[in-house]
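Go through this fold for my students:
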Amino acid sequence: QVQPAESGGGVVQAGDSLTLSCSVSGGTFVGDDMVAWYRQAPGKEREVIGTITWDAGSRHYADSMRGRFTIYRNYHENRAWLHMNGLKPKDTDIYYCSIQRDSIVYWGRGTQVTVTS
C-alpha cells in the first residue's frame, strides 16, 4: 500500500508564503510515480493544482494556478513540495497530495491551510 503524507499546513496571513511537503509514509517514491497536488474546500469540487513526475521532475500546472504556486521535488530527500506565494483568503482549503503508481492513485489525508485577511 502506498500512503502519501502531507505536512506543513497552518494559519498564515494574506500575502504570506507557505511550503507544503509530501512524502510516502513508510516508503519511498519510485521512478514512475506521478505526484499531484489538489485542494478542496467543504462543499466544493476538488481542484487540481499541478503535477510533477518523480524521475524527470516534469511539471504541469492548472491554468488557474500558474504564477503563485510552484511544485518541485527533491529526489534524494524523497519529498515533493508545493510552494505557495502571495496567499489569499480564497486559498483557504485542505491541500492533498496524491501519488499515481502503476495506474492506481493513492491519496493523503490532507493538510489544512487557512489564510486570514
About this structure: The radius of gyration is 13 Å.
